[in-house]
Amino acid sequence: MNLLTAVIFLPLIGCLLTLLLPRENEKLVRQFTLVWSLLVFVISLFLISGVSSDQRPAVPGAFAFDVNFGWIGTPPIRYHIGIDGISLWLIILTTLLTPICVLISWSYIGKHVLAFHAFLLLLEFGLVGVFCALDLFLFFVFWEVCLVPMYFLIGVWGHDRRIYAALKFFIYTMAGSALMLIGILFLYNKTGTFDYPAVLLALQRGALTYPEEMLLFLGFFIAFAIKVPMFPLHTWLPDAHVEAPTAGSVMLASVMLKMGCYGLLRFCLPMFPTAAHNNAGWINVLAITGIIYGALVAMVQPNMKKLVAYSSVSHLGFVVLGLFTFTQQGLDGAVYQMLNHGVSTGALFILVGFLYERRHSLEINAYGGVATPAPQLSTVFMITMLASIGLPTLNNFVGEFLVLQGAAIAQFRLAVCASIGVILSACYMLWLYQRVFYGRASEEVTHHMHDLVPREALAIVPLILLMVWMGVYSQSFLPPISAANTAALAGIEARKELRVQNQPALLASLREFFHAAR
Amino acid sequence: MLPANFMPSGEDYLRFLPEMILAVVGTLIMLLDAIRGDKDNQNPLYGYAALLALGAALGAALGGYSHLGPAFSGMLQIDGFATFFRVLVICVGILTVLSSFQYLKRENAAAGDYNALVLFSITGQCVMAGANELIMIFIGLEISSIATYVLAGYLRDDKRNNESALKYFLLGSFATAFLLYGIAWIYGATGSTNLMQIRELLATSHESGILIGTAAALMFVGFAFKVSAAPFQVWAPDVYQGAPAPVTLFMSAGPKAVAFAVFVRVFFTAFESIGARWEPFIWASALLTMVVGNFAALTQTNIKRMLAYSSIAHAGYVLVAITAHNQIGVSAVMFYLAAYALMNIGAFAVVTHFSRQGEQYVNISDFAGLGWKQPMTAGLFAIFLLSLIGVPLTGGFFGKFYIFQAAIDAHLVWLAVLGLLNSAVGAYYYLRVLVVMYMQDPSEATTNVPPLGAALRTTLFATAFGTLLLGIRPSVLLDFVRSSSTFGK
Questions:
Q1: Inter-chain touch B408–A188, beta carbons under 8 Å
Q2: What letter would DSSP give residue B302?
Q3: Which of A80, A435, A456, B402 has its CB 3.0 to 4.6 Å from that of A134, i.e. a possible disulfide?
Q4: A112 vs B contacts (CB less than 8 Å)
Q5: pLDDT per residue as tens digits for the range A200-219
Q6: Is residue B401 part of a domain?
Q7: DSSP character for A137?
Q8: CA-CA distances (angstroms) from residue B146 to A35, B152, B166, B221?
Q9: B429 to chain A, minimum CA–CA distance in Å?
Q10: Distance between CA atoms of B167 and B297, rounded to whole angstroms?
Q11: Confidence band (pLDDT; 50, 70, 90) for B1?
Q12: Chain B residues within 8 A of A75 when measuring between CB atoms
């Protein structure tokens, strides 16, 4: 039994086992899910030693824990999975957050407990699968499988406008993935395979004309950009985040958004390097717009969850910016920033959830002076907030620094513009903290507010420790990421050089494509 | 044409065995019903007899696979394609009979005629599946249609049933007339009604282009009506909504699938050589059907009507595969129709169960909170709906995937893009049912749902199993479908 396959399928088995438990015994369901997801987490830790941190550029298509066997005969669809440094930490992030989500839902989720936990495990199955799949069809399957549990998590256990948010989330992603499916089919038509390394190889041999590459790039890019989400395709995100239950928000922000970033890095850039290069200009402009726009909108939000949601738009702008610099630093920073965002924004959502459980409001106005009745809660919130701002010695600093460095290497003005976002993030976060935790505590706040209970502390402390660890000693995490990125970049550069210089501009190539189609 | 001194051989009868079994048992049931009179007319005996006949016919159809070939001087062509559709419609028949036991009892309707009519309809459909001759197609279509017209109005005291049956009958006859007129034109132009002969004649002669074109257009109208393709889809919502729920279940799966089979067979054999001329029309019809079906379904409040529009949309997807006009397209049509039959029968079986006496609860809002009141039924319903949306690991997804693969293969990139975006729109109305079932508080309709009967439970589990199987291991069907997507072999 391959270790990676076990990590993918154990959550699914857990999901099926949960369904067998007695529905009335909610405590048993929670305990079972907690133990099971912790078990998956522990097993997933063994993946670390299997992934190489070797800096030498690896052969494209060399993945650890490679499993490859036929699933469907014709068309040839294979169960092909494997990981490298990019996917490794994302998988561990997923398996870490699942037990934490069980913990934070212990008292938050009161109805349909069994179904909630079953969906949570199903979601974990889909998410881990997305990060492992090396067959385009398989990737698409996992990609879509994630939608269903998240749809239910938002729609059943969410707040007042949950149904609207859930539908919007589903339809938005579905429309994007329709384009991706066409892209996958088109690639299959050109290369005769769904197997990712084989597709890459065929593309290296020039299976596509440039206009085709351009259109395929755009198809995949839009699908991933919706998921990231990139400005101006981000509008589903605030709705989904605000309406989702805490665990849903955490999984959505910390892991699901990374599906989009991961897709860009894993598929979009290596498969269509020339198109990616030629489009990098406007994509970076959009990324920076997202960084600044997200931060500005976050500043004026009266609702805490919405504020954190818009801050996500801002942070993920950094990730996309890093990716489209095509520099080692930029890529490393982008991947590191994915993890940072997962840890710190996940923690922010958890803490906002704690506040909500006490006061039953997400409006910032309803709070003030929380630090007095709940000092521990304020402290962890402070650390998380500082991490999110990007204070040195905490995790986000490392990622943002690397991204800005990469941007500066690519184009200095990009780095200048992006750094405005860093300043703005300090503004909205500090202001939020000030309004919620400082000042005089009103009667209602003191009445409702109590400090962290041990269960809550257990959920949040690992994330706090991780923020410090990732900020102080990034060497524990970066080497495998760098190794994978070096390999990816080498592949991208090699492909780029093969292309004739002097590519036709986007419009000209589109025109050419339509002529050919006619 | 048959020679004057034609004597059918044993082989001929063997290849015609399923139809014979069904027709004989159907007649016997009718006789038995007449002998027994009105007393005890809901006896499940009729249903068991029908099941037995269908089981035997299924065996005969499967057994016939080892004796492929023409029957009755080439009037029928029992090839892999025919076998596939015969097995499919017989399975649809079994599931229909299983879903009807409870319903007939509940509505106090006579079981004898009902089951006999189902058997006759399937007889006609089996004939259509194997027909290699325009006249045989017409005969099969009439046998199937007339039985279905009667079924649509089976509860004769129910106003909705009457409306449904009348509309179906009038419009259906009108469409059949078009088909028949097309057959007459083609006979006039080529002097033959045999599909293979027509193909050869058309491939060699270039004259009478208008004649052939008109004939193809007229026949397209007839088929488009039967498969509810736009712009000939208007009847479907009213008829599906008005007919008894298990009959709607049957209509949306059996007659539709086999009408597609004949459509494909005629256009891919007889009209093969003028493909370039009909492809644009089917392209347009496919797009229009998807758009009309999906967008009209968005605003429906009645679940049967919503599923009727959804069934129009799904016909559009199948037409995409036909437009592709390649061998993958044919396999995709076959695979999709099987997957569609399973998921749609499942969905309608839930509606049959839930609607209760007199079909009082057929509004989508009535399903509120079903997910928590009857987790089993609702969970199965959710599987069918997700499959209709096209979520991976269900048959609906793989079918769609395969259809669009055929389209891309035929360079129909834009049709594929529009089709898939359409299916994103379509997700909305299925999701709305899930919303109602899981995200709203129970309504009075969901508080006292009776337990599932054994027969209906069998239908639900069988279809859900099939839906998931086709999504997880599509090869079980795919390999067969791929090997039998050519005609006359």
A1: yes
A2: B
A3: A80
A4: 372
A5: 888 888 778 888 888 899 99
A6: yes
A7: H
A8: 61, 10, 12, 19
A9: 10
A10: 20
A11: low
A12: 405
> Which one-letter amino acid corresponds to residue B379?
G
CB A356 within 8 A of CB A280: no
Residues of B in contact with A137 (CB under 8 A): 401
CA atoms within 13 A on the CB side of A437: 20
> Could you report the per-residue pLDDT of B408-467, keeping only the tens digit for each?
989 888 898 899 888 888 888 998 898 888 888 888 878 888 888 888 999 999 999 999
Tell me how far apart the alpha carbons of residues B363 and B425 are, in angstroms, rounded to a whole number: 21
Mean pLDDT of A150-179: 88
Domain total of chain B: 1
Find the radius of gyration of the CA atoms of chain A: 22
Euclidean distance between CA atoms B329 and B481, whole angstroms: 11
Per-residue tokens: B308:
């009727």
- Contact B393/A at CB under 8 A: yes
Q: Does B166 touch chain A (CB under 8 A)?
A: no
Residues linked to residue A77 through DSSP beta bridges, in sequence order: A72
A234 touches chain B (CB under 8 A): no
Single out the residue of A290, A257, A256, A175 nearest to residue A223, CA to CA.
A175
* Max intra-chain CA distance, chain A: 72
| Residue B319 falls inside a structural domain | yes
Q: Residue A36's pLDDT is what? A: 92
The DSSP line for B235-264 is HHHHHHHHS-HHHHHHHHHHHHHHHHHHHH
In 3-state terms, what secondary structure has residue B289?
A: helix
Our measurement of the distance from residue A311's CA atom to the centroid of its chain's CA atoms, rounded to an integer in Å, reads 14
Q: Please state the rounded mean pLDDT for residues B266-288.
A: 89
Query: Between A and B, how many CB-CB pairs are < 8 A?
Result: 90
Check CB contact under 8 Å for A72 and B474: yes
Looking at residue B208, its pLDDT comes to 62
Out of A162, A170, A178, name the one closest to residue B431 (CB): A170
Non-local (6+) Cβ contacts of A318 within 8 A are A287, A291, A333, A334, A337, A399, A400, A403, A418, A421
Closest by CA to B169, choosing from B271, B49, B251, is B251
Please state, in angstroms and rounded to a whole number, the distance separating the CA atoms of residues B426 and B388.
9
Q: Do B439 and A112 touch (CB under 8 A)?
A: no
For the stretch A488-507, pLDDT in tens is 888 887 776 655 444 555 66
Closest in A75, A144, A145 to B405, CB measured: A75
- What percent of chain A clears pLDDT 70, i.e. is strictly above it? 93
Closest C-alpha to B481, from B98, B83, B188: B83
Lowest mean pLDDT among A207-211, A390-394, B127-131, B314-318: A207-211
Interface check for B391 against chain A (CB to CB < 8 A): the answer is yes
- List, as one string, the DSSP characters of B187-240: HHHHS--BHHHHHHHHHH----HHHHHHHHHHHHHHHHHHTT-TTS-THHHHHH
Other beta carbons within 10 angstroms of residue B420's beta carbon come to 27
Rg (CA), chain B: 21
Q: Choose among B308, B426, B433, B310: nearest CA to B370.
A: B433
User: With an 8 Å Cβ cutoff, are B401 and A72 in contact?
Assistant: no
Query: What CA–CA distance (Å, rounded) separates A440 from A111?
Result: 35
DSSP H stretches of helix in A158-231: 162-191, 196-204, 210-227
Q: What is the H or E stretch that residue A66 is in?
A: strand A64-72
Average pLDDT score, chain A:
86
Distance from CA of A67 to the nearest CA of B (A): 18
Q: What is the mean pLDDT of chain B?
A: 89
**How close, in Å, is residue B63 to chain A by CA atoms?**
26
Question: Tens of pLDDT along B374-384?
Answer: 888 899 999 99
A293 touches chain B (CB under 8 A): no
Q: Looking at residue A79, what DSSP letter applies?
A: E
Strands B76-78 and B69-71: antiparallel
Quote the domain boundaries for residue B216: 11-483
Chain B interface includes A12 (CB < 8 A): no
